[in-house]
Write a structure and sequence with these properties.
The complex is a heterotrimer of chains A (about 350), B (about 290) and C (about 280). Chain A is of the alpha/beta class. Chain A is built from 13 helices and 13 strands. In chain A, the strands form three sheets. An eight-stranded mixed sheet of chain A has the order 2-1-3-11-4-8-6-7. Chain A has a three-stranded mixed sheet with strand order 5-9-10. Chain A starts with a helix and ends with a strand. The chains are: A alpha/beta (about 350), B mainly alpha (about 290), C mainly alpha (about 280).
Chain lengths: ~350, ~290, ~280
């Protein structure tokens, strides 16, 4: 008697979970857009009943997991190189969702708004400038009482797209950085503590007096942390915001959507901006997912790039420009399932 | 009779199954590390460079981090563990206070590792940070010292329960003989109990070391995630277990993942050896006691 | 005379040292429990248990996904560790030869393996072949940790049974199989059960094996083939995050976890006391 009851319970539990759940999607990757994505997926679930389980494990993780097809989509703020793309069993596409700012956040008494130049940033992260009240920092922030603290550098310990954007910028503005360290998702940092994800870096900077780290703008704002105004290529000191990022992002993207926005030519554009992409297989039948799931995935991508865009600005991300959106639509429409188009 | 044959057969199969699992563990870890073993060989243990970009991997920073934190944790915890063992084994064998201490020690052992890490992160790290600021050292807060302290608290109950087991086995008549000769409790402990149980206590130390060696979560949360050889006790670092926890899901390159599994293989081998030797010493000690005691 | 006084002084000092160090050792326990209680109680209300976590930056939210996930993982771990564990325990207790001696040593060693290695194994054995993360792989990783505990408690309980029990069963004409299954095992059930409870309280708090197996899930999931959240995983993620709301939830979850472990501990002790009496 008990056996029948238990078996019946288990069967109803398992089938119940499939009955009520429609398609569920699994994604992993960048922490850069996580505040935006988690909001988007929360709204999407409430609107359409489709659960999207997104784990922010870093862009590197997202790329690995989508390559191994252990997830349905990957997310990364570092676009893949030609070499990296060859390692995939089947061609992939990059779909830009939003653009954001990599800001320099820090922890010094009073939380003042600091001005920083590319040279100073490079020297800090190379370990050449070791104290907050160094002459170079004082010179461009004459009104601020800089403390006699050691500068504690915090960087990412995981494979990070945010790191990619940041080091891409540093490589462009400093030959020394380009030679000594270079750009990448995981680099051999000359010094500093490693935080896991944008979350980890924010948490560390927030707690350690004298710390400085690079995080996406949303993280600094949500945690009420100060961030620097940075001198761009045109010589203007720009405050990171959706607007200044949009100015930097207002360029023509190549058809495959892979482009860097750092060290922008735009006169009032923020110099450390970057797109963040969702990466899926062009032919979703090669992704190891069902036709039904593939349809839902493409619907999700369309929603994220259209209706979902209204959540960008409130969360301090820059929505896609009209130019970019047109090209993005083309890419989404090109996604197929066994050759058959998924979106009309 | 037939059912008995079948039943015994099932028993033997399960025994072999267990043995098979052991082999499978070793083979899987070896297979997973193969790429790394092929590329770096035995030099992997002594190389201090962990560079995912240049694709050069070496285990030394993490081996150092693990060894340093485990040794410091052991040294700090030893007086406390021994005291608890003596307290419960000699001074207060029964009674309310005995039950109290033994129960609270069991509870300490039952607290999950992640909670130790959480506590360490929010309560110990700010204190260490204040200390570092006073000493004019970079106030990371996280690092070797913090990790060692958290580890020490975690292994106290483990070491003390082993020590208790060992001390219980010291033959009672030897101890009584000591007292009847007019020795104080201190002298009995110092000259009879400790020397007698020396090998057992050594094994206990070894096993506690093994426990600290493999501890993952609490350490990961307070060690600072720094992939270089630690330079001082205040330096952030990484242990073999914590680097795996931090980097496994994000290793993009195959050689990176393989190197992490390679570290896991060594972690397996080292803790296996430590536990194996420790258990054998304790077994020998127990057998000796049963024969002579 | 002086010698005697010195001897007595040393003895007294040593006693004070031993007592002090012993009592100091338990201070961390009370500090930890106090802090978790103080911070956790602020987070806990009815809503906490029945709602899902909120996106970062928003207030409120709860741990429903983690609670259900933990239960699911424990069930899977028990399924994979208890039946083989008991059978192997019987094997080691009943059959005495070199092979079983070696197995006994091996079980002790297996118990001491770092939990992160179990996570790697479950990733290689389950996640890779399956092609995705799942509660199943997390449960299997946990069962690897439960297995030695079940084996040992079965073996030790069986060894403690009086031999007369077996003799009486044979005398009544029962064969070996029935003796074991219908006499010995039922007599050891409390001991085995308490071993299982100890195991459960241990793996309920395990995080490392789940990092790359169960993976995490912001929604409730009872499907073993999909990723799932668990209490310790949630605590780990939220404790390391910068969001105050998430940190608050982590404290609350820690309180829940500690209470779980506490109750399991108390329950186990009660069972052991009862069994010892009989």
């Amino acid at each position: 008697m008990r056996k029948i009851f238990v078996t019946g319970f288990l069967i109803s539990l398992i089938s119940g979970s499939n009955l009520f759940a429609r398609v569920e999607l699994l994604g992993a990757g960048a922490t850069f857009p996580y505040p935006l994505y988690s909001k988007m997926f929360d709204v999407y679930y409430k609107a359409y009943g489709v659960k999207v389980n997104y784990q922010s494990i870093g862009s590197g993780g997202g790329i690995r997991q989508i390559r191994e097809r252990t997830v349905d989509f990957g997310a990364s703020d570092a676009f893949l190189s030609d070499e990296e793309m060859k390692k995939f069993s089947s061609p992939i596409v990059h779909i830009p969702i939003t653009a954001g700012a990599v800001v320099l956040t820090y922890n010094i008494p009073g939380n003042p708004e600091l001005k920083l130049t590319p040279e100073i940033i490079v020297d800090i992260f190379l370990g050449k400038i070791k104290k907050w009240n160094d002459e170079k920092i004082k010179r461009i922030n004459p009104d601020i009482n800089l403390p006699d603290f050691d500068i504690v550098v915090v960087h990412r310990s995981d494979g990070s797209g945010t790191t990619f954007i940041f080091t891409d910028y540093l490589s462009k503005v400093s030959k020394e950085w380009k030679q000594k360290v270079g750009r990448g998702k995981s680099i051999n940092w000359p010094l500093g503590l490693g935080g896991k994800g944008n979350e980890g870096v924010s948490a560390l900077v927030r707690q350690i007096p004298g710390a400085i780290g690079y995080v996406e703008l949303a993280y600094a704002i949500q945690n009420k942390m100060p961030y620097a105004i940075i001198k761009n290529k045109s010589g203007n000191f720009i405050k990171p915001s959706p607007e200044s990022v949009s100015l930097a992002a207002d360029i023509d993207l190549p058809d495959d959507m892979r482009i860097s926005l750092t060290d922008t030519e735009a006169e009032f554009g923020y110099p450390i901006s970057g797109f963040t992409w969702i990466i899926v297989y062009k032919d979703l039948s090669k992704a190891g997912i069902s036709y039904e799931k593939a349809k839902e995935l493409v619907k999700l991508l369309w929603w994220m790039t259209h209706e979902g865009q209204k959540y960008c600005k409130p969360l301090h991300y820059a929505p896609l420009s009209k130019k970019t959106l047109k090209k993005t639509e083309k890419v989404i429409k090109s996604i197929v399932y066994k050759g058959k188009k998924l979106l009309e | 009779m037939k059912t008995d044959k079948i039943f015994k057969g099932i028993l033997w199969i399960s025994g072999f199954f267990l043995f098979f699992i052991f082999l499978l563990i070793f083979i899987s870890l070896f297979k997973g590390s193969f790429l790394s073993i092929k590329s770096f060989g035995i030099g992997f243990l002594f190389s201090k460079e962990w560079n995912p970009v240049a694709e050069k991997f070496g285990m030394l920073p993490f081996l150092a981090g693990t060894l340093i934190t485990s040794v410091i944790a052991l040294l700090i915890s030893l007086p406390f563990s021994l005291s608890i063992a003596l307290f419960l084994g000699e001074y207060f064998k029964t009674g309310f206070i005995s039950k109290f201490l033994s129960y609270t020690t069991d509870l300490l052992a039952g607290i999950p590792s992640v909670i130790y890490g959480f506590w360490g992160l929010y309560l110990l790290v700010p204190l260490i940070r204040k200390l570092e600021m006073k000493l004019h050292v970079t106030p990371y807060g996280v690092g070797i010292l913090t990790a060692s302290l958290v580890l020490a608290v975690m292994i106290i109950p483990y070491a003390s329960s082993i020590a208790r087991e060992i001390i219980k086995l010291v033959p009672r008549d030897l101890i009584e003989a000591g007292y009847s000769l007019g020795a104080t409790r201190y002298e009995v402990i110092k000259k009879i109990i400790i020397p007698y149980s020396a090998s057992g206590i050594f094994a206990g130390i070894l096993l506690s070391f093994g426990r600290a060696f493999g501890e993952t979560m609490a350490v990961t949360m307070v060690i600072g995630n720094f992939n270089f050889l630690p330079k001082s006790i205040f330096s952030p670092a990484n242990t073999m277990a914590s680097v795996i926890a931090n980097e496994f899901t994000e290793a993009v390159k195959d050689i990176h993942l393989s190197s992490l599994i390679h570290i896991g293989l060594w972690l397996f081998i080292i803790t296996f050896l430590i536990n194996f030797i420790g258990n054998i010493v304790i077994k020998k000690f127990k057998i000796n006691e049963r024969i002579t005691g | 005379m002086k010698e005697l006084q010195v001897k007595i002084l040393k003895d007294k000092i040593f006693k004070i040292v031993v007592i002090s160090l012993s009592l100091i050792s338990v201070i961390p326990l009370f500090v930890i429990l106090f802090q978790i209680f103080k911070n956790g109680i602020k987070a806990i209300n009815f809503d906490f248990f029945i709602s899902l976590p909120k996106p970062p930056g928003e207030q409120g939210g709860g741990i429903l996904n983690a609670l259900i996930g933990t239960i699911l993982l424990l069930i899977i771990a028990l399924i994979f560790s208890v039946p083989p564990g008991i059978i192997t325990g019987i094997f080691i207790a009943e059959i005495r030869n070199k092979f079983t001696d070696f197995l006994r040593d091996f079980v002790n060693v297996l118990q001491g393996l770092p939990s992160i290695v179990m996570g790697i194994l479950a990733y290689l054995w389950v996640v890779k072949p399956m092609g995705h993360f799942s509660a199943l792989s997390g449960g299997i990783a946990l069962s690897l940790m439960m297995l030695p505990l079940v084996i040992k408690s079965t073996e030790e309980t069986l060894k403690m049974l009086p031999f007369s029990l077996k003799e009486a069963s044979y005398a009544l004409g029962a064969n070996y199989t029935s003796t074991v299954l219908k006499v010995l095992i039922p007599a050891s059930i409390s001991g085995i059960f308490s071993g299982i409870l100890i195991g459960v309280s241990r793996i309920a708090g395990e995080t490392a094996p789940l990092l790359f197996t169960a993976f995490g899930n912001p929604f409730v999931n009872v499907n073993p083939l999909k990723p799932v959240e668990s209490l310790p995983l949630l605590i780990f993620k939220y404790a390391m995050s910068p969001y105050e709301n998430w940190q608050r939830i982590a404290w609350g979850a820690s309180l829940v976890l500690i209470l779980m472990v506490l109750f399991l501990n108390i329950f186990t002790n009660i069972i052991i006391e009862k069994w010892k009496k009989s």
